[in-house]
From TrEMBL, chain A:
It comes from the Bacteria. It comes from Streptomyces qinzhouensis. Its main location: membrane. The chain crosses the membrane at residues 36-57, 64-84, 115-135, 141-161, 196-217, 282-315, 327-346. This is Xylose transport system permease protein XylH.
From TrEMBL, chain B:
Residues 1-21 form the signal peptide. GO terms for cellular component: outer membrane-bounded periplasmic space. This is Sugar ABC transporter substrate-binding protein. It comes from Streptomyces qinzhouensis. Its main location: other. Residues 58-300 form the Periplasmic binding protein domain. One of its GO terms (molecular function) is carbohydrate binding. Pfam families: Peripla_BP_4. Belongs to the bacterial solute-binding protein 2 family. It is found in: Cell envelope. InterPro entries: Bact_Solute-Bind_Prot2, Peripla_BP_I, SBP_2_dom. Keywords: Signal.
Length: 354, 338
């Protein structure tokens, strides 16, 4: 390889040229972003609740909404990446609870510094991620089935182990143990400015979104994710390490579940063993509202964040608007359909103008 | 096009048939008409009886979706709100984190009073203390009597689950039972565990726990059936929620067991069952009272700085209900207040 650049190829007028080298106008590039539809939806929801609910548009309420969004959003980021890679993870919801349970019970039973429990929990959670990824590769079964199995097994393990070890359905309090204060700082601290309380999960969330966006758009691994999700066989044929990519994606979900689980533990210092069931669908909803295709190969991390924000606004907005909470699920379902339709429409327009 | 037209016609014919049937086939008993008559009687009341300003009270519970028990609590709270000129807000979530966020939302709204359940006390600790610090009077209901005072609540209204369980054990002894099953329909519910543990403590015979999935009735029935079929010596089944009593009765019939079915909580079916003798007894914690008193006590506190209970929990149960009281309670359960 010589270090001098090759002379520019003169394509001349009339020759078609390479489409990948075409300059695209900024507006067109914006239209092609997966999260565009969800941003429009988010603005609409925000304006709607600001008008309908008097208490919604004030700093303290918005910080509550942001916190609610972050607890979903932290998980929605890796779930969105996984869906871009063409796979599901139905065990993500209970994995959060598992991670918190392992951390708490290990520290308590071993009378260890809580950081030991936090570290062990990370290993266990990542192991579940590897288990999901490996099983997917070895059995060739759809990830929907594999992770459904993991989901059920984890639900049972959460209840069974907790009962076996503590004799109750929730863990023992570890708030008086060494290392609790410092771990709480990292996972569950809050910054109070006036009457606004910003929780640290919001920072974790933004951080994860930034990292995931960088990975997706600027790294080789990001290209692999899109390739595997678009067409796994074609990706394999051109030398993309499909197995490693998938396991990497499941590890990502596990890592985020570990963060969420530690947040649960250090916010409340006692963990209920039966929780987390059903949340996996909420993460998927957030990713889909944010523009991820259920078939893979398309989506963005920012979109998942917008989806989570919409979820947070809706779930809390209904409270601020003083509506009957029985209707919440209805709104959520309607919003999911609307968002998916809007996304499809925007995508079609963007492809048509190309 | 022709096919679409016949489709429309078919739907039209179906609608006409349904309407016609509903006009012709009237029921002279029960149904909505009877309910409307009852409602009209009830609506004769319901005007505010006080001249205090319109305060806003929020209730945040750990209820799941569509729960009969919490529906009755809400009824009590709403009726007290109507009387006390209160703007009553209700929200719920069975996930601890979500419930804490809902309490935070109530604090953001700067409500004048807060009613909260402490089924997951540790998760609610910080946010309840925050409400107290913000100057919002807090009353805890239903669960969390041990933590209520520590978190700064004015009082706790509810039933001590261990005491209620012990009452069940005593009642089973009086009825001469030897082998009982306690059916837990919500894995991970601390209060449920306490009930069964309390019953075990005072019951002289043998008591086993049976875990079932309460969100899936056929599964509940199958589990109880299997248990009764495998162990013929079982002579009492205790369910922890009213809807499960009826299911247990069916399971008992299918399994041809001799066991007596007893239950926590009331509903119209349980009242009818007690009256008919298919159920032994029910342990009621009077949910209506929990909602009603919570709103009323908050109003009293705001109006007159009064507080009931002398620093101890205000107990609404256990109240053992048998065949003797069933007839009287049947109307109240139909009304949805017991």
């Amino acid at each position: 390889m010589s270090s001098t650049a090759p002379p520019p190829v003169d394509l001349g007028k009339g020759s078609a040229g390479d489409e990948r080298l075409l300059t695209v106008s900024p507006l067109r590039r914006l239209l092609g972003r997966p999260e565009l539809g969800s941003v429009v939806g988010a603005v609409a929801v925000f304006v709607f609740f600001s008008v309908v609910a008097g208490d919604f548009f004030q700093a303290s309420s918005l910080s509550t909404v942001l916190y609610a969004a972050s607890t979903i959003g932290i998980m929605a980021v890796p779930v969105a990446l996984l869906m871009i890679g063409g796979e599901f993870d139905l065990s993500a919801g209970v994995l959060v609870t598992s991670s918190a349970l392992v951390s708490s019970m290990f520290s308590y039973q071993m009378t260890a510094n809580v950081w030991v429990g936090v570290f062990v929990s990370l290993l266990v959670t990542l192991a579940v991620g590897v288990f999901n990824g490996l099983l997917l590769t070895l059995t060739k079964l759809p990830s929907f089935i594999i992770t459904l199995g993991t989901f059920l097994m984890l639900t049972g393990l959460n209840l069974g182990f907790t009962k076996l070890i503590t004799g109750r359905v929730s863990t023992d309090s570890i708030s008086d143990m060494q290392g609790f204060a410092s771990a709480k700082k990292l996972f569950a601290s809050e910054l109070v400015i006036g009457d606004v309380t910003l929780k640290v999960t919001i920072l974790w969330w933004f951080g994860l979104v930034a990292v995931a966006t960088w990975v997706l758009l600027r790294t080789r691994f990001g290209n692999w994710i899109f390739a595997v999700g678009g067409n796994a066989d074609a990706a394999r044929a051109v030398g993309v390490p499909v197995v490693r990519t998938r396991i990497g994606l499941y590890l990502g979900v596990a890592f985020a579940a570990w963060i969420s689980g530690q947040h649960l533990l250090f916010s409340y210092d006692v963990v209920q063993s039966g929780e987390g069931v059903g949340n996996e669908l909420i993460y998927i909803i957030a990713a889909v509202i944010g523009g991820c295709l259920i078939t893979g190969g398309y989506g963005s991390a920012i979109g998942s964040a917008v989806g989570a924000f919409i979820f947070g606004m809706t779930s809390k907005g209904i409270v601020y608007a003083e509506w009957n909470p029985d209707w919440f699920k209805f709104f959520l379902g309607a919003m999911l359909l609307l968002a998916a339709l809007l996304n499809a429409w925007v995508r079609k327009r963007a492809e048509a103008t190309r | 096009m022709a096919r679409a037209k016949t489709g429309v016609r078919a739907v039209g014919a179906l609608l006409a048939a349904v309407l016609g049937a509903s006009l012709v086939g009237c029921s002279s008993t029960g149904g909505k008409r009877a309910a409307d008559a009852r409602k009209a009687q009830a609506e004769a009341v319901g005007k505010a009886a006080v001249s205090t300003p319109r305060w806003t009270f929020a209730m945040v519970t750990h209820s799941g979706e569509g729960d009969t028990f919490w529906d009755i609590v809400q009824k009590g709270a709403k009726e007290a709100s109507a009387k006390d000129n209160i703007n009553f807000l209700y929200s719920k979530s069975d996930e601890a984190q979500q419930q804490a966020q809902l309490v935070q939302a109530a604090i953001d709204k700067k409500v004048d009073g807060l009613i909260v359940t402490l089924a997951k006390p540790d998760a609610m600790k910080d946010v309840v203390k925050k409400a107290v610090a913000a100057g919002i009077p807090v009353i805890t209901i239903n669960s969390g009597s041990a933590q209520s005072k520590e978190y700064g609540a004015l009082t706790h209204i509810g039933q001590d689950e261990s005491v209620a369980g012990e009452a069940v054990g005593d009642e089973l002894n009086e009825r001469g039972k030897k082998k009982a099953v306690c059916v837990l329909h919500e894995q991970g519910n601390v209060g449920h565990e306490q009930r069964c543990a309390g019953a075990k403590k005072t019951f002289d015979g043998e008591l086993q726990n049976l875990y079932v999935d309460g969100t899936n009735m056929p599964d509940v029935q199958a589990s109880i059936e299997a248990k009764l079929q495998t162990d013929r010596a079982i002579d009492a089944v205790v369910t922890l929620g009213a809807p499960f009593a009826d299911t247990a009765v069916r399971a008992k019939e299918t399994a041809r067991s001799k066991a007596e079915i007893d239950t926590f909580d009331l509903n119209p079916k349980v009242a009818a069952g007690l009256k008919a003798g298919t159920l032994g007894f029910a342990v009621d914690q009077q949910p209506y009272l929990q909602g009603y008193e919570a709103v009323d006590l908050l109003w009293l506190y705001r109006y007159n700085a009064d507080m009931l209970g002398g620093g101890r929990p205000v107990l609404t149960g256990p109240q053992i209900v048998t065949e003797a009281e069933a007839a009287q309670l049947e109307d109240y359960t139909k009304r949805g207040t017991r």
